[in-house]
UniProtKB/TrEMBL annotation:
PROSITE patterns listed in its UniProt record: RIESKE, RING_HYDROXYL_ALPHA
Species assigned in the record: Micromonospora inositola
Molecular function terms, GO-annotated: 2 iron, 2 sulfur cluster binding; dioxygenase activity; iron ion binding; monooxygenase activity; oxidoreductase activity, acting on paired donors, with incorporation or reduction of molecular oxygen
Alphabetized PANTHER family for the sequence: 3-PHENYLPROPIONATE_CINNAMIC ACID DIOXYGENASE SUBUNIT ALPHA, CHOLINE MONOOXYGENASE, CHLOROPLASTIC
Classification via SUPFAM superfamilies: Bet v1-like (SSF55961), ISP domain (SSF50022)
Gene3D superfamilies the record matches: Naphthalene 1,2-dioxygenase Alpha Subunit, Chain A, domain 1 (3.90.380.10), Rieske [2Fe-2S] iron-sulphur domain (2.102.10.10)
Keywords assigned: 2Fe-2S, Aromatic hydrocarbons catabolism, Dioxygenase, Iron, Iron-sulfur, Metal-binding, NAD, Oxidoreductase
Protein name, UniProt field: Phenylpropionate dioxygenase, large terminal subunit
Amino acid sequence: SAGARDREPLELSALVDVDAGTISREIFINEQIFRAEMDNLFARAWLFIGHESQIPEPGDYFASRMGSDPVLLTRDSEGEIHVLLNSCRHRGMKVCRYDSGNTLQFTCPYHGWSYSVDGELVSTPGELFGVPQFHNAYGGKLRRENWGLVRVSRTVNYKGLIFATWDDDAPAFEDYVGGFMLWIDNLADTLAGVPAGTEAFGGVLKWRVKANWKFVAENFLGDMYHAATTHASVEAAGIGPAGANSSRHGTSPEALAKRRAIQHSTSFYLLGHGATDSAIEQRVPPTFADHPELTEYFADLFAKKVEIRKANGQHVGGHGPATLFPSMSFHSLGFPRTILVAHPISPNETELWRWFIVDKDARPDARDWLRGYYMRYSGPAGLTEQDDMENWDYATDASRGAVARRYDYNYAQGLGHSQDGPIEGTVESVHWSTEENARNFYRRWLRFAEGQSWASLMDPCSVKKPDVVA
Ligand code: FES
Ligand code: FE
């Protein structure tokens, strides 16, 4: 796919004219831009690594990724969590080739260097482990303390969700997230709003699509526009709890229309994250055609959450699909909660990872029902996800056409139709749907891709606030 334009010096700001609502197709296929994304964005931003419940015991590990780098999420004998580059310091071989497990140490399959779960190059008296032939081969002179696995600078465990950044200068995770934390809370808290009471179902679904990672991110950060067209067949088939004649989320078409009428608010964040906002009261609890006891169970949890939030004087919103900039998308709709991370492999290939989240104390029948629903909905075999994947693949392929490549995409929906949102730092559309979220994502994307300083990246004033309707 590399063309002459890949070798020309890049002028990124000429490709992304957010204020005019146009973006060049080039940013979805260009190799040079992809490299700038890896160096300037993925090696600096806070990224989601995994869920604490995946590594409950000392010695547990889960193999994850940060941009183009494979990493290991581990728990050491003291219970501390680490994120380590999964690459041997000798010649780079992966020191761990399993997806997850429990171990005393990682032994490199190439020449046998061994590392403890906290990343130290091991030294043991009998030389059976550690560096093979330490005395014969290195005269005992290798300074093992300098050759441990590369450790990620900073990690955060936020209510069981583990995030990490390579950048020592990155702002605190809470500052990076800003007012978007409400959506993260709705993902990480229980359905009734109890903090840190969730876990990930065992096993992460992983598959590759022939699509640029940004199409995935922007699909979840505010594109409510696609649902009625793209997912029409899913709605017709009735994949939700109430079966046919109901939405995917188990509510009647009338209830859905009512919600849309009040939910004009696709909120957007000056930090590049994006989400659709609706309050839990607006999300009619699901109706289960064959399990009335589950209808009652979920309605009760919804009611509890409203009660807790109101007692604490908190906004009851933040329920909707969302993307934490740059690449962690998730659903926190009310009852289904899933995470989708788009790991960039190349400009036109992305590895998608799906986690499914459930209350630790969920009733067994609710847990079983959710497991089935999650797989019917999301992941490579999920009906809704398949609809979306097809769009991302074709859009990426179309961006490569020699002629097609000359024509910009339209990101003008809702330009000039915004108002201040209910949460600090947000603006929302006066209409039900807007592309303000996507425009804002690309404003921040541009500043990252250009390699700007954190002061500039975190300054909302350097982002042009859209015309706010009085
Ligand atoms: Fe790991 Fe040589 S590459 S020991
Ligand atoms: Fe979709």
